[in-house]
Amino acid sequence: MDDPFDAGAAGILRQPKAVWATAGASVVAFMGIGLVDPILPSIAKGLDATAGQVSLLFTSYFLITAVAMLVTGFVSSRIGGRRTLLLGLAFVVVFAGLAGTSGSVAELVGFRAGWGLGNALFVSTALAVIVGAAAGGSAAAILLYESALGLGMACGPLLGALLGNQSWRYPFFGTAFLMAVGFLCITAFLKEQPKPARRTSLLDPLRALGHGGLASAAASAFFYNYTFFTVLAFTPFVLNMTPYRSGAVFFGWGVLLAIFSVLVAPRLQERLGSLKVLGGSLVLLAADVLVLGYGDHTTAVVCTILSGAFIGVNNTVYTELALGVSDAPRPVASAGYNFVRWFAAAAAPFFAPRIEEWTDIHVPFVVAAVTAVLGAAVVLVRRRSLTHEAEELEPRHSAEDSVAVFAG
């Protein structure tokens, strides 16, 4: 029997140039998130800053990203998806370039905030554009988007290591250049998208959160994102490796993230159902992070890479829940969901180094493990509210099929 996912994977490759241009720029946008991972210790040394100060690069970035989620739909529904993408890319090009010229941590943190605004405008609109223009329906579009996310997350640390080994400034200049290329590609290949019939107000994403299912997905994702970004922003200081070695570790992490988000997660959802997969993956992530915090250096490296598998699964399931659990338009639901969860991405880099200062190096990972379990608890307690989307992804195999799967 043909595997439907193999057929879907083949279909995913047959896309218009506009989709590939948007997906390519999305890869670079997601590269910007993990780009600084291998060079965090180098930035701290180069600007004579503490780990806590340098971690604010993530905090300012995601704090602005979270708030900007209320603005993205407002902007795109008025000027159109194409212009919103180009505006976001222009912001990233300017502020990534300026970040490379920073003379202090305060300047770098400020430029990262501007970068976060551009990334919010681009990333939130890119998903809607890809869904609207992709061949093969929304499922193929989401997989394509998750592929871009995974590839970007994998390549970001690698680019940061390769360029950052010479100077911590070079990765910022490299990102500005790549985003400028993305700007030109979208200008050339993406036609203006149809504007929605109704303009989005600034409060629409907040109103969308009045839906119990979307609010539950956002609350669970909030706790999960705290764990996710403790790994991403705090672990480089714990590993304390050269940019090349740290880049290699997070490249492996990103590769697992990409594989599990695009290939493994859909199969698990097909067999077990979304909510079981999400709850189980969050518990496993909690265990992995706890071992990471208390293990020796080799164990920490292995657990850091392994966490990419659980993060990849979670990202895919959360994205589908956020897009399908409520009756709100997808861009509005996505904005409300992201508004909530990105606050945790801003909080984790801020609190993790300070928790270490107040206690010891193990406790930030204990807190991260607890937040992952809390995310799973929300899924368990609020499973009825989340069932709207989950029903579409419940197991569709008979008992005989299940036995065959396990036997084979």
UniProtKB/TrEMBL annotation:
Subcellular location field: Cell membrane
All residue ranges annotated as the Major facilitator superfamily (MFS) profile domain in the record: 18-387
InterPro entries the record matches: MFS (IPR011701), MFS_dom (IPR020846), MFS_trans_sf (IPR036259), Tet-R_TetA/multi-R_MdtG-like (IPR001958), YfmO-like (IPR053200)
Pfam families listed in its UniProt record: MFS_1
Chain ranges passing through the membrane: 18-36, 56-75, 87-109, 115-135, 142-164, 170-190, 211-234, 246-265, 277-293, 361-381
Keywords: Membrane, Transmembrane, Transmembrane helix
Gene3D superfamilies the record matches: MFS general substrate transporter like domains
PROSITE patterns per the UniProt record, alphabetical: MFS
Recorded topology in the membrane: Multi-pass membrane protein
UniProt KW Transmembrane helix keyword: yes
Protein's name in the database: MFS transporter
Organism whose genome encodes this protein: Streptomyces spinosisporus
Phylogenetic placement of the source organism: Bacteria, Bacillati, Actinomycetota, Actinomycetes, Kitasatosporales
